[in-house]
Design a protein that fits this description.
mainly beta, single chain, 2 helices, 8 strands, two-stranded parallel ribbon, 4-stranded mixed sheet
Length: 100
């Protein structure tokens, strides 16, 4: 299934809300419980592995992510567990991602 992401180099991990994870069919019921630091404070979350994350022609497997136990973030965050595996460049306000 697909979803839109907000590219967030300040996010340590790909981050999804409970609502988004359920819509995408991500089972986090038996996942490790973690504390997630957000701009709004600390919330309960679940550590998961996403089988596949694809952005355009870039496809990565077993990407670490966290699912928050509430409705935030409203838009999923494409954080560093995905981005650190890519070459990132920015020019004229446009970010370019390239598989290493």
């Amino acid at each position: 299934k697909s979803t839109e992401f907000l590219v967030d180099t300040g996010a340590n991990s790909v981050a999804l809300s409970r609502t988004t994870a359920e819509r995408l069919g991500i089972d986090f019921s038996n996942s490790e419980v973690v504390q997630i630091g957000t701009a709004g404070g600390v919330v309960k979350g679940y550590r998961v592995k996403l089988f596949k994350v694809r952005v355009g022609s870039i496809e990565l497997f077993n990407v670490g992510a966290v699912v928050s136990d509430n409705a935030f973030p409203e838009m999923p965050l494409l954080g560093m567990t995905f981005l650190q595996q890519l070459e990132m460049s920015e020019s004229g306000g446009v970010m370019k991602l390239k598989k290493q």
